[in-house]
Amino acid sequence: MVNKLNENNIIVSNYDSKSFLLDIDGFEGPIDLLLMLARTQKVDLTQISISALALQYIDYIANMVNLEIEVAADYLVMATWLAFLKSKLLIPNNNEEEVDADFLSELLTHRLKRLDAMRKSSRLLFEKKIIGRDVFLRGMPEYVNEITDTVYHNTLFDLIKRYMSINKIDKPKALSFIKLNIITIDDARRNIISLFSLLKKWITFDSILNHADATSDNDLSKKASSFIAILQLAKERKINLRQNKNFDDIFIKTD
Fold first, then answer.
1. Which residue of 45, 172, 216, 218 has the fewest CB atoms within a 10 Å radius of its CB?
2. Is residue 37 part of a domain?
3. 109 found inside a domain
4. Quick one: 92 and 198 in the same domain?
5. Whose CA is closest to 210, among 198, 238, 200?
6. For the chain, which residues score pLDDT lower than 50?
7. Which of 95, 111, 127 is the last residue of a domain?
């Protein structure tokens, strides 16, 4: 936006479609032109409706969807200072020294210059190179995004075949039982009693097992039943048992 003087020394403004244009009693034109006229005392701020200005600003912001935030902020500052200038003119404070309108205008200009300087500084700051994006420190690791893409080489027929193999229903198998030749304690007892003729002297328990029921194919059952049988016979004092130490051979002998 460019402001200039016409042939009658009246400030005019070249503005685009995004400019904030006012249409209120006593003024019609862009808001920045109103500020310049107020500063040069070529417009009476007491005739400007601040409420109408505020409503038009709200409508302007609502309609300008793609308006830059910096431009909207500039216009807001301008409207705020116009309201402040008018309040000073309408409500003078007797307790304070009278503030000159020129001083307020200069103060407004100073504030706007500071705002413009901050905006330019922020833009220059963001235009600088950023570490990790534009420049990299020495020794700084470079992070690489690993993208995994799975490629299947199987055909539709392979997929169906695999699915059928998983869901294949096997024929039920017949349940079979293994019959074990179990030697009872009574059978083991009778076998040991039949060998009393061999027990006139000390003989090991393993030797008894070798002679007892040689037809049995279940050694574990024969050993367990025979062990309980000799304990019963020893309790009945029909045989004697001897073991020199733990886990050593057990010797058996009749009286």
1. 172
2. yes
3. yes
4. no
5. 198
6. 1-15
7. 127
pLDDT in tens, 188-230: 888 888 888 877 888 888 888 877 655 556 678 888 888 999 8
Question: DSSP letter string over 100-142?
Answer: PHHHHHHHHHHHHHHHHHHHHHHHHHHHS--BTTTB--TTPPP
Identify the domain boundary among 127, 142, 162.
127
Written as six digits, the tokens of 137 are 């420190």
Q: Are 191 and 221 in contact (CB under 8 A)?
A: no
Look up the CATH number of the domain holding residue 234. Answer: 1.10.10.580
Specify whether 30 is located in the same domain as 108: yes
Q: Tell me whether residue 78 is in a domain.
A: yes
Give the integer Cα–Cα distance in Å for 158 and 128. 57
Q: Residue 216: its pLDDT value, please?
A: 56
Rg for the chain, CA atoms, rounded: 56
Long-range contacts for 73-78 (Cβ within 8 Å, ≥24 apart)?
A: 73/115, 74/112, 74/115, 75/20, 75/31, 77/111, 77/112, 77/115, 78/31, 78/32, 78/34, 78/35, 78/112
pLDDT of residue 253: 87
pTM: 0.31
Exposure letters 161-180 (e unless 16+ CB within 10 A, then b): eeeeeeeeeeeeeeeeeeee
Q: What is the DSSP letter of 27?
A: E
Which domain range does residue 36 map to?
Answer: 2-127
Query: Is 209:226 a contact under the CB 8 Å cutoff?
Result: yes
Number of domains in the chain: 2
CB atoms within 10 A of CB 15: 17
Residue 148 forms part of a structural domain: no
